[in-house]
Amino acid sequence: MIDRILSIFTTVGQESHGSVGVVLFIGFIFGVIVQYTRVAEFEKIAGFAMLRDTIVPKMLFLAIGIASIGLYFMVEMGYAQYHIKPVILGGLIVGGAIFGIGMAILGKCPGTGPVSIAEGRIDVLVGAVGGLFGGLFFTLYYDKFKMIMGTSLGKPTLTTIFVGHEGLAMLLFGIALIIISIIIPLRELDDK
Amino acid sequence: MIRKMPWWLGGIFMAGLLLFTFAAIGAGRPLGASTYVPYFAGVLFNLDPKEYPYLQEVHNAGAWEGVMLLGALVGGFLTSVFVTKTFKFSVMPPAWKKYKNNSVKSRLIWSFIGGFLLIVGARLAGGCTSGHFLSGMSQGAISSMIFGGVVLATLLITGKFFYNSEAADDR
Predict the structure, then answer these.
(1) Where are the alpha helices (DSSP H) in chain A?
(2) B8 in contact with chain A, both atoms CB, cutoff 8 A
(3) Which residue is closest to B148 within chain A, CA to CA?
(4) In B, residues 109-168, which contact A (CB 8 Å cutoff)?
(5) Distance between CA B119 and CA A105 in Å, rounded?
(6) Nearest beta carbon to residue A134 from set B90, B115, B163
(7) Position A123 confidence tier, pLDDT thresholds 50, 70, 90
(8) Which chain B residue is nearest to residue A128, measuring alpha carbons?
(9) Taking the CA atoms of chain A, what radius of gyration do you get in angstroms?
């Protein structure tokens, strides 16, 4: 088992998605941002589910708005590539529904959970054990889950829908998200 | 040092990190954070990837995210100890006490169930908050917008009916 754990570094090293150091760095900065903005707190995500805290959607929409404009130009200039996930309606709808319920109850998502554990939260550690069993369950019954997921309907994006006006579509999308992030009323739930 | 970064600065930094991850000079791939779970489950329960096709599918992405999350654990830990000064072993979030109940047992059982649902849901949809919301929507992907809409709906419905969010206003 130790061999298999250590082999994750070899696997990453052999891939062409950044050296182990770069990937650790990306994770490190991710952890710092999530912890420093406190969005990994139960009060932030469960608080948003109760509409008592709006920090998470404000930050998320702002980040997506800026990144969507930046990424479009990076792709145009050849500095990056799109990696689009397919539309699998069953998977997206059933999976999204289950994900939203889990997120409201645990008060974390798979990215913020580990950051929360690093802050000493034992309840989230128990949630992570639940997640491991979820991952095991999915792996064991993958053929059954595949039937729920359905077939791929392709990988449409705003740039394939608005052919000829890709830049304008992404620019307006980005600006709209930035405006949404600003106009969502600021509410914060006390975490004491 | 200021103990909390405002949401707008966090959003700007997160956008920068996302762009770096996508950039060819960075990792040349999207940010993701749920594929590592079945990968780790395969390792912990010692499942043979030859027998489980899903483990082969997630092999590379799972390893990448596993290393990334190792970085996130270190970054989160150091920030909580030295910057936000919030590191503390705890089992009960204050808002659970206020809007749900006082029982540690209840919190732990629901945490387990919540974590289980979170990962099954993310794996069905092929992504989570990082893979779909952040990375997917930044590419204008329709799949991620469908996922985002459904998650938002069930998150708010669960928030309304699972917690006593109306009752506890006067403390």
Answers:
(1) 2-14, 20-37, 42-49, 55-76, 89-106, 112-117, 122-140, 142-149, 158-161, 166-183
(2) yes
(3) A96
(4) 110-144, 146-160, 162-163, 165
(5) 13
(6) B115
(7) very high
(8) B115
(9) 19
Which among B11, B53, B162 is the nearest to A105, CB-wise? B162
Phi/psi at A104 (5° precision): -65, -40
The whole-model pTM stands at 0.95
Residue with tokens 């594929």: B35
Considering only CA atoms, which of A158, A106, A12 is closest in space to residue B118?
A106
Residue range B93-133, pLDDT digits in tens:
999 999 999 999 999 999 999 999 999 999 999 999 999 99
Q: Which two tokens stand for residue B6?
A: 């405002």
Chain A CA closest to residue B22: A80
In the block, tokens 């103990």 appear at B3
| Min Cα separation A63/chain B (Å) | 4
Percent of chain B residues past pLDDT 90, beyond the cut: 92
Residues of A in contact with B168 (CB under 8 A): none
User: Are residues A109 and B33, on separate chains, in Cβ contact within 8 Å?
Assistant: yes
- The predicted complex's ipTM stands at 0.95
pLDDT bracket for residue B171 (50, 70, 90): very low
Q: Which of B:12-71 have CB within 8 Å of A? A: 12-15, 17-31, 33-34, 37-47, 52-55, 59-60, 62-64, 66-71
Which two three-digit tokens encode residue A90?
Answer: 């069953």
Over residues B47-75, the pLDDT tens digits come to: 999 999 999 999 999 999 999 999 999 99
Contact (Cβ atoms closer than 8 angstroms) between residue A181 and residue A61: yes
Of B70, B43, B68, B67, residue with least CA distance to B55: B43
In sequence order, the 6+-apart residues with CB closer than 8 A to the CB of B30 are A83, B21, B22, B131, B135, B136, B139
H helix intervals, B30-134: 36-44, 53-57, 59-82, 94-99, 104-125
* Torsion, Cα of A45, A48, A49, A50 (10° steps): 130
Q: What angle do CA B169, B89, A23 make, to 5 degrees?
A: 105
Q: Which two tokens stand for residue A149?
A: 């997921």
Asked if the Cβ–Cβ distance from A118 to B43 is below 8 Å, we say no
